[in-house]
From TrEMBL:
Function: Nitronate monooxygenase that uses molecular oxygen to catalyze the oxidative denitrification of alkyl nitronates. Acts on propionate 3-nitronate (P3N), the presumed physiological substrate. Probably functions in the detoxification of P3N, a metabolic poison produced by plants and fungi as a defense mechanism.
GO molecular function, one term: monooxygenase activity
Protein name: Probable nitronate monooxygenase
InterPro entries: Aldolase_TIM, NMO
Pfam families: NMO (PF03060)
Keywords: Flavoprotein, FMN, Monooxygenase, Oxidoreductase
């Protein structure tokens, strides 16, 4: 049995404090909305809502995706905070690759998001978009090079730095900041060393701006031993996504959750996303069909900034919506590397207890 090294310390992000240094990762479309994020915040963690096509079930979505998404961002942030009851923090994950990235950031700030985490691209303009609001911002980085590039640009262009950093490793779910070649042999990457180098490079900006930049490690974090390992590397907290899917509070359909519970190691596959990045997902009929032919797109949902419906292999919006609604054969189910270790349904309370005590 694993013995905990120490009790977990609260996570301090500027003047904001999370009692537990655990961020629930953002998962779209619709997997992490207000029910899940609010429950995590209520336990003293940081609950994250994914804004990717968040309004998929709003009336009028088929004709006005952008408008419905803005409505849903505001609604789900407010609702998550109500569920949290004044505990923890509530934030959003906004992909840089989104066509309406700017509007999503502005709507989240307006709705009172405590934090914005941004990846699937380099969020170079994020400081400008949040302005002088109290919302804290963090880029998702997977390499020292990306971290240095973003921190240098933010310092030069906006005379500010990140409020915290999320380092997302090669075992994460969804879109990955690694090449297919790198993902073929994850262990050869020696990613612990990369984490240490990212932590070292941000110290320059801590000194420059006289502030602490907490580091959050994500990707493959499954249990308390993983959390302790990340902290030993110098991290201040962790981000966990896949484990929160198999909870009663998760916003996805029950069939989606059961797909995680029933997943085997051999079901996990690296795919190519229309976002232009590799992604980790569960191999199902949808994935198998793509191996022989693309799925023609008959309707564009205006989700990605750089997407040509005539050439991409499938519509990622349609694929993710189909899955989150429960059709696990014909939709896209993103997942983390360790999904096969999830064997039962739980609650956010019990999972947080398991991870923290």
């Amino acid at each position: 049995m694993y013995t905990y090294n120490t009790s977990l310390k609260p996570l301090q992000i500027g003047e904001l404090t999370a009692e537990k240094p655990i961020i629930q990762g953002g998962m779209g479309v619709g997997v992490s909305r207000s029910s899940l994020a609010g429950a995590v915040a209520a336990e003293g963690g940081i609950g994250i809502i994914s804004t990717a096509q968040i309004g998929y079930d709003e009336e009028g979505f088929e004709r006005d995706q952008a408008g419905c998404n803005r409505i849903a961002i505001s609604k789900h942030i407010r609702r998550a905070k109500e569920i949290a009851g004044g505990r923890g923090l509530v934030g959003v994950n906004i992909m840089v690759a989104l066509k309406h990235y700017k509007e999503h950031v502005q709507e989240a700030v307006k709705a009172g998001a405590d934090v914005i985490i941004s990846g699937a691209g380099l969020p170079m303009d994020l400081p400008k978009l949040v302005g002088d609001s109290v919302t804290k911002i963090a880029p998702i980085v997977s390499s020292k090079r990306a971290a240095q590039l973003i921190l240098k640009m933010w310092a030069h262009r906006y005379e500010r730095t990140a409020d915290f950093l999320v380092i997302e490793g090669p075992k994460a779910g969804g879109h990955l900041g690694f090449s297919r070649e790198q993902l073929k042999d994850v262990e050869a990457l020696d990613y612990d060393q990369e984490i240490k180098e990212i932590i070292a490079c941000k110290k320059v900006y801590e000194e420059k701006f006289h502030t602490k930049i907490p580091v959050i490690v994500a990707g493959g974090i499954f249990d308390r031993s993983d959390i302790d390992h990340a902290l030993e590397l110098g991290a201040d907290g962790v981000q966990i996504a896949s484990r929160f899917v198999a909870t009663k509070e998760c916003d996805a359909a029950e069939e989606y959750k059961q797909a995680y519970i029933n997943a085997k190691k051999e079901d996990v596959q690296i795919i190519q996303s229309p976002v232009g990045m590799p992604g980790r997902a569960l191999r199902n009929e949808f994935i198998k069909d793509l191996e022989s032919d693309r799925k023609p797109i008959t309707k564009c949902y205006n989700c990605l900034e750089k997407c040509d419906p005539r050439s991409v292999p499938y519509c990622i919006t349609k694929a993710l919506i189909v899955a989150v609604r429960g059709d696990i054969k014909n939709g896209l189910i993103f997942c983390g590397e360790n999904v096969d270790r999830i064997h039962e349904m739980t609650t956010v309370h019990d999972l947080m207890q398991e991870l923290c005590y």
